[in-house]
């Protein structure tokens, strides 16, 4: 699992190798069901990401992007979740936030 994207009462799960599936559940409901998995982190109103699969975090004053191995797969981090993403990276010493 790379990330989860919401679309009203549905979520789309994106996996490696271009695999996807859709479920009829809200992102908020799914987030509560997945709360025990610390590597799954809400980073935006519309996204939950698998932080273990994030290869690069970049950004500037306008926003941050989480990038995966697959070049086309990027997820935005909203301002309200930047601190959560930074905290996760510090705790897990995964990578540094690169600001351009």
Structure description:
By secondary structure, the chain is α+β, with helices and mostly antiparallel strands. It is built from two helices and nine strands. The protein has helices at residues 27-33, 82-92, and strands spanning 3-7, 10-14, 20-23, 40-44, 47-50, 54-60, 63-68, 74-77, 98-99. The strands form two sheets. It has a five-stranded antiparallel β-sheet. Strands 8-7-6-9 form a four-stranded mixed β-sheet, with no helix packed on it. A hairpin with a 2-residue loop joins strand 4 and strand 5 (47-50).
Strand order of the largest sheet: 3-2-1-5-4
Choose one word for the global shape.
globular
Q: Note the run of SSEs as H and E.
A: EEEHEEEEEHE
CA(first)-CA(last) distance = 28 Å
What structural category do the secondary elements indicate? alpha+beta
Largest sheet report: 5 strands, antiparallel
Q: Specify Rg, calculated over alpha carbons.
A: 13 Å
Oligomer description: single chain
Mean pLDDT: 88
In percent, how much strand structure appears in the residues?
35-45%
Share in helix: 10-25%
Low-confidence stretches: none
Number of helices: 2
What is the tally of beta strands? Answer: 9
């Amino acid at each position: 699992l790379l990330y989860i994207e919401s679309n009203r009462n549905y979520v789309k799960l994106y996996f490696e190798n271009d695999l996807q599936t859709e479920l009829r559940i809200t992102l908020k409901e799914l987030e509560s069901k997945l709360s025990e998995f610390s590597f799954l982190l809400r980073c935006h109103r519309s996204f939950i990401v698998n932080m273990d699969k994030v290869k690069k975090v970049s950004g500037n004053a306008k926003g941050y992007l989480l990038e995966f191995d697959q070049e086309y797969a990027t997820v935005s981090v909203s301002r309200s979740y930047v601190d959560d993403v930074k905290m996760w990276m510090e705790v897990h010493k995964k990578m540094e936030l690169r600001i351009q």
